[in-house]
Sequence to fold (296 residues):
Amino acid sequence: MEKSREQLLIQRIMDGERDHFHELIRPYERRAFLIAYTILRNPNDAEDAVQQAMLKIFVHLDQLSETDKFCSWAMRVVENESKMHKRKRRQDLYQPLDAEPEQDGHAKQFRPKQFADWRDLPNEIVEQEEIRTAILEALADLPEIYREVFALRDMEHMSIVETAEILEINIPMVKTRLHRARLMMREKLTPVFAKPKVSIWERWKGVNPWFAAKR
Amino acid sequence: MVRCKTIIAHLSEYVDKEASPELCHTIEKHLRGCSRCSAVYDSTRKMLVITGDERIFEIPSGFSARLHRFLERAILEGSAS
Fold:
């Protein structure tokens, strides 16, 4: 089978052309940072963790048996390194109860409580600082097991299989966690994006031709 | 009559277009008559468009340069050997 460009790069690095390592990891920098950030929730710590992880990836590259799985393997190293950083930091020592590994079907029992319609959201809305902050805060609020699966699938667009490989969980578990993560995110963001409530008076003004004629 | 609970439980499958044709039909029929589930579906869809936009999450400025400088130094110093 023909080797991909990435596999050829790995081969060249293994053959001693170390400089190609920079090229190899460049496409994964954002993803690595996002993974570390979702675990550590602090940009400086995330950056430290990614640096250490990338160094480990370089050191242990010869242990990668299936070079076509570089992405999942490397991101798993980032994930583990970030978790190690977190343990060292001794913060978040106690996870909220709902972060415990879920029982079968538990996630499917999540019941939404917010039913307001969302307003139409133009594409440019993501450029607003307060919107970005609201989304990242909602994400940071999720228990870790939901946060990481949401970040990988719904922010980084990784496949279910890749997500499962990185998180070392099975595919049904990815789906279950993702489903719950989405419902939780939606619940947290509904107050931000809900259509503004219109009072009875405002509604009456809007439909009453007499009121409009008097203005 | 399918209950809202069942529809919500399968919403991600439906959003990801992984639901079977029968399930799609059941969900769509329910959504037409249930404003609550319809609001949950519509907002989930809108949310995924926003969160999937790469502008939502930006890596800190200078992150990449610092990473490569760090690696260069570490590899040169032999800490990586």
